[in-house]
Structure formats: C-alpha cells, structure tokens
Amino acid sequence: MGGAHQVGVLVHKISVKEDKHKKEVVLNSVNRNHPEYTSFRPEKRQVEKSDQTSDHAASESRSHKTLEVAEIYKPSVHVNPIFASVGVDTGKLFSASEATDIVFRYIEKENLVKPTDKSMVVLDAILCDALFKGAIKKGSTYPTAIHKKELGHTFVNRMQAHHVVTRGGESVVRKGALKNIQIMTERRQGNKKVTKVSGFESFLMDAEALASELQKKFACSTTVAELPGKKGHEVLVQGGVIEDLAKHLVEQYGIPKRCIEVLDKTKK
Fold first, then answer.
1. What digits encode the pLDDT tens for the residues 169-208?
2. Which GO MF terms does the UniProt record name (predicted)?
3. Which is deepest, 123, 147, 223, 242, by most CB within 10 Å?
4. What's the structural domain count of the chain?
5. Domain range enclosing 192
6. Max intra-chain CA distance, the chain
7. H-type helices in the chain, by residue range?
C-alpha cells in the first residue's frame, strides 16, 4: 500500500511501472512541463572550476601587461627644513603633488601669502634657502617673493628625483628619472636592416623572454647582447620593424609612448 502511494505521488512528474519479476521500478515517461522539472537547475561545479581557471589565467595575462610608472621625490638637504617644520618624515618618498602640498602647508603655517597680492608668496629665510640656495649666481640678489604657480615646480626640482615601476605584483624604486626605451634601425653588411631595442629592463621586462616573443611576432631571428660598458641588454631583431616594434611594446607591455625613443638610421 505504501509502495502504491509513493508511485501516486510521483505520477504527476513521472510515469513508472513496477516489474514484479525483477522487483524494479521502470521509468516510462517524464512530465517536462511539471513545475519542479522546469525549475530544476543542475549544479555546474565542473564548469565553475573551469571558469575560475580561465579567470585566473586572464588575470595573470593582465598582470603581465599592466604597467604603472610614477615619478616620486625624496627630500634633499635643501628642502628638509620645510618638511621638518610641518612635521613630515624626510625619509619617505613623495609624489610631486604631495610635495607641493607640503610646501603650501608651510606657507600657511608661517602666513607667507602676500596680503596685497594673494597670488604671491613672500620668501622667508627658510623658504628662500630651500628654493634658491646654491642656485643663485654669486653677486646676484635673492628673490623676496615667488608666484604660487612657480612655487610647486621650483620646490619639487630641489628634491631628489626617483621613479617607481610596477608590473603585476613586482615593484621597483630607482634613483633618478626614468630612462626611455631606445629602438633603432640600421643597415648591416649586405644592406640588411636590423632593429635594436634597449632600455626595456627599466620597465621590468626580461631580455630573453622579449627576444623569444619578438622572434615569433615578426617571424625572424633575434639575438640578445650585453650592452658595452653598461648594465643591461639589447635585443637585435633582423629586419626593419621599428614602427611595429614600438606599437607592440605599447599594446602588449603598456609602455607609455612618451617613454619610447625611435631612430631610423636607414632613412636619408
């Protein structure tokens, strides 16, 4: 009786028949319009795992291409008194805007804005030394005021330039301004063109990996050579591919166009 009741419950969704000899229940048909059938959604565990793998691979690809370049500055002996006066650590690195904010904090603290002309800043001894000490020729008169528009640029130029390059999870801080990538095409023996690229290591790019990639990209032979008397390497590509190579570095590695110098020695 219990078995008949169970079948009665199921008959709305499926049609079954009991085989008395084998003691088995055989499925005859399925009601595909039944609400429980139409609302059923199978678990896609394997698909989700595959999607996660795909997303991870895409993320790795993006991190390979993603590049962030920033100019930063370290306080020098010239500007240290300004930072100390407003209680800022001189051992840290600052962006140009952050450094500019600090010098304006000092101006506000010392009330140095010219009352009769709000666009001008009066130079006290500390600010004057920070901006001009050692930069004014002997015998010349030190300025007594500076325009607000010139202040930030002048102040930042008195600091020590650094730059930070970040690609994916790797980040490097170096002294000095960021050096550009150089791409040059010239003629070799037999009037054959060769394109050389250097300076890419500043952007966290590997010479061997780049050479291998360019070999496939341009279907030509590539070699890696150590730069004479310098640190770093250059990649030599057979053929005049200067424009395509520059475009490839921009699109695939995210190198800013302003950071690429090109020179075609084959053009007269």
1. 889 999 998 999 999 999 988 789 999 999 999 999 999 9
2. translation initiation factor activity
3. 242
4. 3
5. 181-264
6. 120
7. 2-10, 35-38, 45-65, 80-85, 96-110, 125-132, 148-157, 207-218, 242-253
